[in-house]
C-alpha cells in the first residue's frame, strides 16, 4: 500500500473501538503542521505537498471518525476490496429497513417532532448495538462474512440517521 494507514497517521493501533476525543485532538495537532496557509511563502512543490498531506489527513479523519466508514476501512485493510453497493442478502434486515422507512414517512407526513426524536433515539440504540457487534467480530477471519453484513447494516443506519436529521431540520423551520 503506497499511502500510510489511516491509523498509523494518527499513531493509533488499527481497531474499531477508538477514543473520538483522542482522534480529534491528534487531527487538530497534525492539521496545524500541514495546513497549506503555513506554506504560503514556500516553493510551489512544498505548497503542493502540503495541500496533498492536508487532503490525505482530512480523508483519514473523515474515515476514522465515522463508524461505518471505519468498519469498511478495517475490512478493506484485512481482505479483498469490498464492492460499494451490494444487495443485502439479509431478509430480516430488509424487512426492518422497510419498517423504518415506512415509520419515517409517517413521521414526515404527520410532522411529529416528538415522534422523530423518539425514532432518532431508537436508531441510536440500534447503531450502538451494531457497532458493538462489529467490534467483536471484525478481525476474526472466520467471521468476515458476518462483519461485512454488519458493516452494510451500519451504512444503512448511518444513511437513515442522516435522513432523520434532515427531517428534523425541515420540521424545525
From TrEMBL:
The protein's matches in NCBIfam families, at most eight in alphabetical order, are given as: hscB, PRK00294.1
Listed GO biological process terms: [2Fe-2S] cluster assembly; protein complex oligomerization; protein folding
Which keywords are on file for this protein?
A: Chaperone
Segments passing through the bilayer: none
- Which protein, by its recorded name, is this? Co-chaperone protein HscB homolog
* HAMAP family registered for this protein in UniProt: HscB
The entry's family comment says: Belongs to the HscB family.
CDD domains xref list: DnaJ
| Subunit and partners | Interacts with HscA and stimulates its ATPase activity.
J domain: residues covered: 5-77
Question: What is one Pfam family matched by this protein?
Answer: HSCB_C
Give coiled-coil spans as residue ranges. Answer: none
Biological function: Co-chaperone involved in the maturation of iron-sulfur cluster-containing proteins. Seems to help targeting proteins to be folded toward HscA.
Q: Could you give one GO CC term from the UniProt record?
A: iron-sulfur cluster transfer complex
Gene Ontology MF annotations: ATPase activator activity; protein-folding chaperone binding
Amino acid at each position: 500500500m503506497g499511502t500510510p494507514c489511516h491509523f498509523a497517521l494518527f499513531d493509533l493501533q488499527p481497531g474499531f473501538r477508538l477514543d473520538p476525543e483522542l482522534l480529534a485532538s491528534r487531527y487538530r495537532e497534525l492539521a496545524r503542521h500541514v495546513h497549506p496557509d503555513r506554506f504560503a511563502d514556500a516553493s510551489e512543490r512544498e505548497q503542493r505537498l502540503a495541500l496533498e498531506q492536508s487532503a490525505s489527513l482530512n480523508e483519514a479523519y473523515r474515515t476514522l471518525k465515522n463508524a461505518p466508514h471505519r468498519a469498511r476501512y478495517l475490512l478493506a485493510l484485512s481482505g479483498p476490496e469490498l464492492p460499494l453497493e451490494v444487495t443485502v442478502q439479509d431478509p430480516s434486515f430488509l424487512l426492518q429497513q422497510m419498517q423504518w422507512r415506512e415509520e419515517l414517512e409517517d413521521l414526515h407526513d404527520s410532522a411529529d417532532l416528538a415522534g422523530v426524536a423518539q425514532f432518532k433515539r431508537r436508531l441510536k440504540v440500534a447503531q450502538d448495538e451494531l457497532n458493538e457487534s462489529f467490534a467483536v467480530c471484525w478481525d476474526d477471519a472466520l467471521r468476515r462474512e458476518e462483519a461485512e453484513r454488519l458493516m452494510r447494516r451500519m451504512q444503512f443506519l448511518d444513511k437513515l440517521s442522516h435522513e432523520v436529521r434532515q427531517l428534523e431540520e425541515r420540521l424545525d423551520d
